[in-house]
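yo

u said u wanted the structure for the complex thing, so here. seqs first:
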Amino acid sequence: MSYNTQCLINNVFRILPNIKNLAVVDGTVTEFWANDPATLVKEPANPRKRRKVAGATDQEGPEPVDPVQRSSEHTKTFENLWVAYLGLPLSLDLYKQILLLMHKRIIPYMHYPPALSDFLTRAYAQGGVVSVLALNSLFTLMQEHNLTYADFYLKLYALFDRQLFHVKYRSRFLRMASLFLASTHLPSYIIAAFAKRMARLALDAPPAALLVVLPWIYNLLKAHASCMPLIHRTDAKAKPKSTPTVNKWMASDPYDHTAADPKEAKALESSLWEIQTLQSHYAPQVSTMAKVFSDRFTRNPFDLEDFLDHTYSTLFSAELDRPSHKDPALAAQIPPRLFIEGDTYHDLWDLS
Amino acid sequence: MVQPEAPKSNQSALKRLRASLRESGITGGKSRVQKRPGNKKKGGPGAAADTPNAKQRAAKLNAIGAMFNPFEIKHNKTSKAKVLGQNRKGEKGRPAMSKQIGQDNRKKTLLVEWQNRNKAGGLVDHRLGEHNPHMTADERMAERYTQERLKHLRGGDVFNLDQDDVLTHKGRPLTEIDDFDEIDLRGPELEGDDGEDGGVGALADRKGIDKTTVRSAHFGNFHTDEQSPMEAHQQNKTKAEVMKELIAKSKMHKMERQQAREEDDDLRHELDDDFKDIRSLLLSGEGVVAPPTDDTDLDLTGASAKDRMLKTLPDQDDDYNQYLQQLALERRAPATDRQKTEEELLMEAKEKLERAERHRVRRMAGQASDTEGSDSDDDDGGDNDAFGGSKSNQRGAGPKRLPQGDDLDGDFAEGASHPLEGMLSRGLQLRKEGKLNDAASDSEDDEDDDEEESGGDDQSDEDEAVFDQEGLSDSDEDDADADDAGTSKATGPAAGTPKGPIPRPAVEEMPYTFPAPETYEQFADLLEGRTIDQQTIILERLRVLYHVQLAPENKQHLRNLFRALYVHVHIRVSDDSQAPLQHLDVFVRHLTELAPMFPELLGELATEQLRNFHGELTSRLQSPAGQFADVFPEATDLLQFKLLTQLLSVSDFQHPIITPLQLVLSQYLQQYTPRSFTDIVAGLFVCHLMLDMQRLSRRFCPEVHNYLQLVLAALHDPVMSETKIKGRPSITRTWADCGLFPLPNGGLEQFSFLNILSNNTKLNQVQYAKPRLMQFFDESTLPTTDAERSATLVGILGTTVQLLVISARTYMAFPSFIELFSPIVNHLRLLPAASLSPSVMKVIQNARTTLGNFLQQHFDRRQPLQLQKHKAVPIPSYLPKFQENYNLDRSYDPDRARAEHKRLQRVYKKEMRGAIRELRKDTDFIQTERLKEAKQADTDYKRRIGGIVGSLQEQQKELTKLDRIAEREKKRKRTRH
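structre next:
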């Protein structure tokens, strides 16, 4: 791609998102920024006719009078504009930025939003951060414009990868994903697979993410009682035999993390040992939340919105600013030196 | 009153009456007349009341009569199903009787009130039993007497003169003092004489009362005719005269007392003089301990032995008494704790440790348990079980802390009960040693010392010099105190030598007292230019000089010292990171000793440091990579965090310092991308810190796990190396096999400096050596050559692998152990064994076997989760519940609060109804009374008016009569004439 093309694409992107507040209802287009002699002749009653859509000039060409006043023409032009633009070779950064603002700035003003479905489907299939960002717009299309997406949950399942809980758009994605999984009509194997996958990933997740994932899994189990064997299984079954694979130990868990299809992951036969592990997490909030799974399942479902905005910094500040009426507890036995002979520090480091 | 039972109701009323009369013994069957009830009843009280038996008879008859009057009994239908032999309350009632009772009661209470409604005052007879007709006069008196006695027994009133308590005047009971004993009743003209010759004799003269006095004063009223002029005068004394008399008398008495005292004194002096002689005899007496006297001239020849004995015997007693008194007055030794045996001391230490452990375990479980009282000790015994008895045992009887330089009970003062006390004596010991040195050298040295001190002061500015002088004088006083304490202690077994050889020259050059540093600058000035040994001594001397037991303001001094020490550790490391770490222990030791005194200050300092660290971290995370060139975190941060982890209780569920510390360190591990060896080493050390903090609480920290995996992957990327070898990664290399740790932005490629295969050295020649921590925090000591790099990388590899083993041991009990550590075992297996030296491979092999064993155990033991295994909850049943022996009056509500509420409501309603009924009856009664009064008033009025009218009519009648008579007379006269 030539440098000039790149510049053009970037420049156009500077302009396009500024087209805001488009009229979407007929009859609301009353103000124009420039006089159109043709319309002036035909409609003297409307002397202050202006063009509102600045970017539309080069594509509109000579138009009949009426369509200018029709909002549908505006939206159609807008749509053509964007679809044409999205066909250009976009850099990853631009891609992300467009996806970020698509569901708020583009889709509402389009005449026929499903025109974007190709673009979004491609983006969603791409995986990684791009998919996460495409999810919002895709959801809007599915919800409001009856877009059907084959294997949606398969793709969603794939989105839960090792990076997910560490990326910047974590809360945005989790908010959407919790919406998708909120349906009570989903089969329990899907719910179980998602829950197990989240739990597995939670073993490496920061506390802020854990504070979303744990209540979410709780809500899922609460809504789908058929998934309760994940945390409570009474029927004993034959122990798995270690198979001579690369990781023979992992065979002790029936769940197959590598399976791409939730149907084949055998999550329903597994248990959420990860949650029991997290019950002894170092952050008190997380371990308290994980201990909820050992209580009776009589709690109301958690409102995830309460947990989505945590970060390391908020947790840190909350801990440090917690009013304490007591002096900090000291160690029972304080060693007199920084490194005592015989401690593990001396085994690992040369402390001279 | 017991009502006789009514006979069976199927007989006729007459028969029943007869039967009941017979039963009650009224009719004996003698005469037919007497049997007749009509007669009996009508014959009634008048005839029967003569004899005592007659009264009883009348009562019985009344009862029987009432029983047989069907109109007086009201039957209530209380229950539909009657049960034979059951006595129900409220089944039968006697409305007339209860009404009568109510009326009577009201007459007694309400009516009285009503009648007194417009009256204020009146007489109330409170005499005991006065209105009780059932009491005889004797009983009444007995009761009153008892009450009176009881009143006295209860203490009565103090000012009641009628009490049995004897009132005294000057130690004599008032009853013994005759009012006229000391009053001079001879006339006022003799007073002058009296005042002059008032001696002992005069007193004796006046003792008795002469007859005249008795006659005139006591019984004068009976003999008025014999009044003498003097008596008359006496009687007519004015008030002023009486007062004058009294004053004169009191003066006289005072003088008499003085004289008596003087006489006593003389007598005593005489005795004292005699005593000298006697004492000499006493000294010779055997078996009698005589007090040492300075009187040495003993005259033993003057009296025979017998005389001596006779003389000494009473004196012996006297002496004995004196000694007794001396002993009694002697100041008692203050009570001290019994010297404890070694077992007791051990037991005490053990108990203390166990208690501390219990509290720690409670805090670890997140329970509020900071009340270090013994009351909570008993009930938290069960908590140990929750965490496995073995752990607590291991902790309770675990290795004690290692002996320290100032471990007083071990090293220095065995008898010192308080650590600070020992501390004090140890410091004094140092000082004493210094003094000995001084004594050995000539006196010039002393002067030199003084000069040195003043010289040191000269360097600071004037204000400080003044302060120093004050400080010196203060501390001199303190020294004196301390010396006293020291000498008293020096006799004990504590007189050991201070531990650690102190370089002689250092001691000689140093002043003994220092001003207490208030700020860090002052503290730094104190240590300026001193060697580490001198600094050690300075700190020790500061601790002794400003020991908290010496003066109350020393606590503030120590506080400042603590703050300065904390800052000093920071500054010292950042100034010279290559100084031996052991030197830090000089300061760390005092920090650890002072920390228990100032936990809140430690909290403040740590909080501030954490905030700074967090601010630094976030600003670095938000800025583009490479903007900050300096090292982060610095060595001083690492070491101070290490210090915090050993000062504070790291196992707490939620700790105001440790929890934020863990959070911020985790954030650092997770989000801060390492770019150099220094970063990696710092990160590994932080991992070590985090793991060390979990050694008791065994809490899971995903960030540490991720970081270690990342470093391992950076050291040797299995996917990449396989790609290199085979051209493509094998199909089994999926992301799950290498662990699910998040890859940093930019992938593993950015850690190429960490790849152990990246350097052009023969790796299998490089032996594993522990990396020197502080080496990486100085530009000059960083590894530069390939050989150094390789050595460093091998060191980092070894440390990482060992940290993984530590974390595996820490997380051994986790149910997800397999998911956590099986990728690591896989990874370790893929390390290029051929290109590593045997010493490294040994470490790796050890790790593999350890992890493999753990994994196999977990693999064998893995069970499905049963998190919802709760105590069975009974299924709610909607079948009716049948209650055995159901009772309507009882409440069977399982909710006790609700049942109680209902009960109270019922009681309230009942009481309300009762009260309304009573009030209604009261109103009725009052109205009836009012009506009666009105009627009475009307009747009275009518009668009065009638009387008046009658009398007037009478008068009129008389008048008319007279008029008629007069008329008639007139007529008659007229007729005569």
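Chain B touches chain A through 117 residues (CB under 8 Å). The mean pLDDT of chain B is 74.
cya
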